Amino acid sequence: MKYLVFKLKIILRYILTMKLSKKVYKGMGLAFLILFIACSPKADYDLGYTWSAVEISSDIKGSEDVEAIIAPYRNSLDSIMNEEIGYALHDLTSKGKYESTLGTFITKLSVEQSIASFGKDVDVAIMNHHGGIRAPINEGPITLGDVFEVMPFENEMVLLEISGDSLVQLIKFIGKTGNSMIWPVQFHVSESGLENIRVNNIAIEMDKNYLISTSDYLANGGSGFRMLKSLKRLEVPTVKLRDMIVQEIREQTARGDSIETDVSNFITTSDL
Amino acid sequence: MAASATVAVSPLILSSCQKELNGKKLTILHTNDMHSHIDPFEEGRYKGLGGMSARASAISKIRSVEDNLLLLDVGDVFQGTPYFNMFGGELELKLMSEMGYDATTVGNHEFDNGLDGLKNAMQFANFPYLSANYDFSKNTLAGQVQPYKIFKKGGLKVGVFGLGVELEGLVNAKMYGNTIYQDPIAMAREMVQELSTKKCDLIICLSHMGYDYGDPELPSDKRLAQEVSEIDVILGGHTHTFMDEPLLLTNSEGFTTTINQVGWAGINLGRIDIEFTPKGKGAVAFKPVQLSNKI
Fold this sequence. Notes:
Chain A contains nine helices and twelve strands. Chain A has about 270 residues and is α+β, with helices and mostly antiparallel strands. Chain B has a single domain, classed as 4-Layer Sandwich (Purple Acid Phosphatase, chain A, domain 2), CATH 3.60.21.
């Protein structure tokens, strides 16, 4: 006890003179820890909560300081994004369970642009249809900004090699979940599952290898596509899906065409 | 010996710790998944809502009346508008710095321009990135992300730590490189121990794991509150969940955690006020919900 009091006096003197050697400080930490456990202040209290969700609406006058920071960025962005890159003859949307106008436009251009950019015989394209397409393309002039809204993500194109029998399994998965779009693939959905599965109107050969064009997001197993992770990936240059869409619109416009896409109606369903 | 030490020093310590917390108050303001929504929505169901300039005004208004305030974000600051595609997150982080954010965590979309992209953008943030379960020690972000930070607000010690979602299958592996995802529940246990040892009066988790998946295998905010006690508040993100009111979840050990998440895109600013009241003196531990949508 006497020794301890002596020790504490030394410690206190060290505190007062601020001459804390590392060793003494460590010892003190231990002593204080014991004391705080004994006292446990938090346990003596209840926590009273109130909360709210403050809606950030246009009723609130914006901060001038913040506006001043945004202004140069907004101006620079507007001039880039307002560029008209094409014209849509009708609204292109992702409405439709298995097929849609915008889904068809994007999967079709994925196949065609992949063939043109990578020089490979791509058979089918798969898109994250209801999660990946974030906005429609409305009838009228198409700006670069519109394409950024359709595809805000930085997804890159990936080419995957798949055997015929695995492709059938993949198409069955797409038919079952109904969240993705695959093109040009025909099938019939009935109560017992998928029937008459064909690629480009030709029956799938089980021992043949097919080439899929898709986004890295799906190829990495996103949206439940775990079966894509193990497939062989072809080495291709880095091209973003968004840039491919922009490229397609620019090319069609350069040819004097406007953007229009019909749903292929490749997929039929029985009344379930 | 230990007992003698207590007798010798405790009067000083006890008096300080008992008077310390009574009536102490903390205001937490929080956002999640703002997804580069610098400007308010121009169309659609959220037309006129959001916008960082209006959010800044709301925050300063609350700051002008609340002394002890923490402004926290729960990740996915990046991606969603061309502002991100063109400027890589620079503007978002400049504005958050201007608003006085105290911390954010690393959401899955923070990896969208790779580790280098995140590192470049981070120089525009004057607040820390907190993540306890992403290990960046072997890549370019080593030393740039810390597991937790302790804030001292008006006599309160508030420990804040961050947790992120599983990256595999969600984020392009090329983008997160050799970042190691560690079990968030186990890391949360470590954090609680660490922050308790450091005598924090409140523990807050910034969780970008998602609110609830109804799957016991998948880590979520609800599972975290069920499995780990002593986290007072979990501020959530990732699932873009709009909650009518926070969930007060009492787990099997009897500990109650408050879980809240405010949708996405900066449409709402979450606010939680916490007040220490002597045990049993207040009528109820949790006051009724006060929903005030207008500033």
